[in-house]
Amino acid sequence: MQFCPSCGKEVASYQKFCKYCGAPVAELPPPPSPLAPPSPLPHSIPHAQETGPPQFPVRGDSPKPRGIPKNIFIIAAAVVIIIVIAGMYFVAVPRFSGSMGQGNGSSISPTQVTVATIVPAITTVPTATTAPTPTPNPFPDALPLRQWFTFGEGKVESQGTVYKFWMNETYQWHNDMDAKWYPQKPKPGKKYLFVFVNVVNQGTTRVWYPKADSIVVHYNGMQYLPDPSHYIPDKSGGNLKATPVEIREVQFYSKLFGAEYVEDFGLSHGTMSDFVYPGESNAVDGYIIYEVPSSLTSDASYVEIAFNSRDRAVWKLA
């Protein structure tokens, strides 16, 4: 052993520089036995590990021990945390989802909640585009014009039909007392409908036939009876009892059988008949006048005839 000439501290005999202050030390012969070199003191720097000029600490500084960088610990901790979280997710979530679908039905899964909130919105959309319900046909079995309906049987068997109609905002009637034509006008929002009816007796004895007040027009859920203001011979007194009242617009319409001009239903040359006798030449044929709404259309209008307490039929005008 020897001492540093600069700082006076003890240094190994084989060291050329002081390990404390770095000052050069007098050279001494190498240790006697190379087989058992003395153990290096702490903080010594073996020559075998030096690849360049020896580095000496500055006087007064203590050499710092080498350690593991802090970044390695941070990365390792982050990896451990990620592994733990992933393990908790794959273990806990399946159990939680399974428990949500079990039990007495009081719990529902997130998928069920989503469906429950979407279904009402889907079911309410069609109501905004649903087409209105059409009005049902009040008389689905109505007969077409000119089709016969048979009532009675045996010697009183007869037939009836509605064979024509005419509509207008007004009409003109002829007054035989002064030989003048007079216009007939309806109430505001109304017009006139003429319905032509024929009843023929196919039996062998006279038959009661339906009078005009038992023939009804149906339109838009309403019923319309013959216009009571229409002038007919029976209302004129004795002077016109045998004279028909002509309607200018239909005065040349012929009856269903023959060429005779049509009159008010039930009248024959101004005389009211009570019965219909056998044969087509004795058929009761004529028009009935109704005051109806201006909106009335033939394709939505029906005529109902009550022939007796048991037999009745309905015709569609178009």
Describe the structure.
The protein has 318 residues and is α+β, with helices and mostly antiparallel strands. Among the domains are: 1-32; 149-316, Immunoglobulin-like. The protein is built from two helices and 17 strands. It has helices spanning 70-100, 110-129, and strands spanning 2-3, 10-11, 149-151, 158-168, 171-175, 180-184, 190-201, 207-208, 215-219, 222-224, 263-264, 267-268, 271-272, 275-276, 279-293, 301-306, 312-316. The strands form six sheets. A five-stranded mixed beta sheet has the order 3-4-7-15-11, with no helix packed on it. Strands 10-9-16-17 form a four-stranded antiparallel beta sheet, with no helix packed on it. The longest helix is centred in the N-terminal third of the chain and has 31 residues, at 70-100. It is rod-shaped. The model is unreliable at 34-38, 41-54, 56-65 and 96-120 (pLDDT under 50).
Which topology of the domain at 149-316 does CATH recognise? Immunoglobulin-like
Task: Report the principal-axis shape.
Answer: rod-shaped
CATH class of the domain at 149-316: Mainly Beta
- Average pLDDT confidence is 78
Radius of gyration: 62 Å
Total beta strand runs = 17
